[in-house]
Amino acid sequence: MFTRVNIMTFNISPPDGANDASIQAHLDSRLKPPGALGVLEATAASLVRILGPSTHAIRSPVMLLFAGDHGVSAEGVSIVAPSTTHLMVHHFLEGNASINSFCRQADLALKVIDCGTLQAHAPHPQLVDHRLGEMTAPFHREPAMTLEQLETGFENSRRLIGELHADGCNLIALGEMGIGNTTSASALMAALTHLPFDVCIGAGSGVTPTIMKRKQDIVQLGLQRHSQALQDTRTTLAALGGFEIVSMVGAILAAAEKGMVVLVDGFITTVAALCACRMAPEARGYLIFSHCGDERGHRPLLEQLDAVPLLHMGLRLGEGSGAALALPLLRSALAFYYEMASLEEAGLVL
């Protein structure tokens, strides 16, 4: 059972749809057949709706890479050791992981948020200390965290988003790192969607049939143990979630509250998006989904959110890799919307 705590509220208004007809008319009047740029046209419409017609560019975008360790990582649900989370955070800060390469290519700033890893990290200019503990509890035995830890995670993310917004940022991209977090995310997906286990639980970083069976057993035990908590998204998150997942949910809600674009990465960040939208459906209008990855539950999860991803590349790395790769497409969407000549200007009539 969870004790009562002060509940943070987010005041989110959906993006203004008053100009939807004029946005569509503008798209259709450009120097191309209507709809010829496919999903890029819908992306441009979403960006203009979120940012407003006076903002013609993505400004000071930041990749927020949330890291956290999971109690279930010691229960045989992964092919790699729990210490890998700490090692990967070290490489993110050293600048030599894949996400660093992609962020440099996309002119995308990177911040790594330590939400609670087994080992603390030395201070670093790109590191944000939002530690909620050393790791979550194994959720098949007890709640992963307390409601106090969850609310602190929300508060931390809201403060961070407020600072970024004040500095001129109008887009955040989401990434994550945490050994065992596909198990947590799969449990959250199963609890929130009621889809079958074989839809929600995939191979994560790549596992053997024995490890897959262990993941399924742990998810089933967690859902059974916390059945009373699964009626509310907040208590579901506290029962089954990860420190980094909770912090991403808070970041999504805070960014939507500020009217910022949220570029979602893979399976785990999409689970965080689902949680955020269950808490505040108005947040959905601020989300753009970068890709559909190779994790088993990602496609049905995107369908739950009525999301059309920009890329299909078989990615299953996490780290925000798909979001960083997709950012240039968002820039291109705004560029063609504002820079392409009209049919009338070109002297053409379709």
UniProtKB/TrEMBL annotation:
Pfam families the record matches:
DBI_PRT
Keywords in alphabetical order:
Cobalamin biosynthesis, Glycosyltransferase, Transferase
Q: Which reaction does it catalyse?
A: 5,6-dimethylbenzimidazole + nicotinate beta-D-ribonucleotide = alpha-ribazole 5'-phosphate + nicotinate + H(+)
InterPro entries from the entry? Nict_dMeBzImd_PRibTrfase (IPR003200), Nict_dMeBzImd_PRibTrfase_bact (IPR017846), Nict_dMeBzImd_PRibTrfase_N (IPR023195), Nict_dMeBzImd_PRibTrfase_sf (IPR036087)
Any one GO molecular function term? glycosyltransferase activity
* CDD domains attached to this UniProt entry: DMB-PRT_CobT
Q: Which domain of life is it from?
A: Bacteria
| Pathway this chain belongs to | Nucleoside biosynthesis; alpha-ribazole biosynthesis; alpha-ribazole from 5,6-dimethylbenzimidazole: step 1/2
| Catalytic residues (UniProt) | 319 (proton acceptor)
Query: Which EC numbers does the record give?
Result: 2.4.2.21
Q: Which SUPFAM superfamilies match?
A: Nicotinate mononucleotide:5,6-dimethylbenzimidazole phosphoribosyltransferase (CobT) (SSF52733)
Q: Which HAMAP family match?
A: CobT (MF_00230)
What function does the entry list?
Catalyzes the synthesis of alpha-ribazole-5'-phosphate from nicotinate mononucleotide (NAMN) and 5,6-dimethylbenzimidazole (DMB).
Family label: Belongs to the CobT family.
Protein name per UniProt: Nicotinate-nucleotide--dimethylbenzimidazole phosphoribosyltransferase
UniProt source species: Kushneria pakistanensis
